[in-house]
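The passage that follows is intended for readers who have already worked through the single-chain material. We present the inputs for a multi-component assembly, then the predicted structure in tokenized form, and finally a short commentary. You are encouraged to pause after the input and sketch how you expect the pieces to fit together before reading on.
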Amino acid sequence: AQKVTQAQTEISVVEKEDVTLDCVYETRDTTYYLFWYKQPPSGELVFLIRRNSFDEQNEISGRYSWNFQKSTSSFNFTITASQVVDSAVYFCALSDLAETSGSRLTFGEGTQLTVNP
Amino acid sequence: DVKVTQSSRYLVKRTGEKVFLECVQDMDHENMFWYRQDPGLGLRLIYFSYDVKMKEKGDIPEGYSVSREKKERFSLILESASTNQTSMYLCASSLLSSYNEQFFGPGTRLTVL
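Having made your guess, compare it with the prediction:
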């Protein structure tokens, strides 16, 4: 069965600190996709990034970076120089082909990040 | 822009009532999903649908049913609401392939008294 674990329930940092959100996953599939979503206080989840299982290159987008390591089944997310607007719940998710058709995601428990001024 | 809308942001119902949560997407997506979100448990999949009139059980389907009569609309039904169904309900949609990200609606916070 698919499983995603985000061991950090809550993280609190001061503005401009760097912060890393951990994500560990379990799957028997050889082809899969990993995702990160952000849920701001308004409630609507926003897609941040997708990574496929064959691409282990790190990715950087502005202050955000992602480290995918297949050997440790981890897909960690780092925010550099955090800002108050980064305060949100962040979810890691793993794709899962359904038995019949279509696809679904398995989500982690989420990490509540609070950035204090 | 992809838009997923949900019929209500907040809903209060009584135990035993039949409850309908409606979700509409405007991007011709094949997949539609219903999740519930509870503190410490993340998002848990209730049901999903990959085509009109097709549905698949998710991880926690008990006490729920769904209906998809049109491609753009996916309804979640609580046949007889109970207090343990008090939660945030999120609808999402995506294109068919597992490569594609899901787009989420704003959520419905349901309280069952």
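Commentary: Chain B touches chain A at residues 30-31, 33, 35, 40-45, 48-51, 54, 56, 58, 88, 90, 92, 94, 96-107 (CB under 8 Å). Residues 14 and 69 of chain B are 27 Å apart (CA to CA). How closely did your sketch match?
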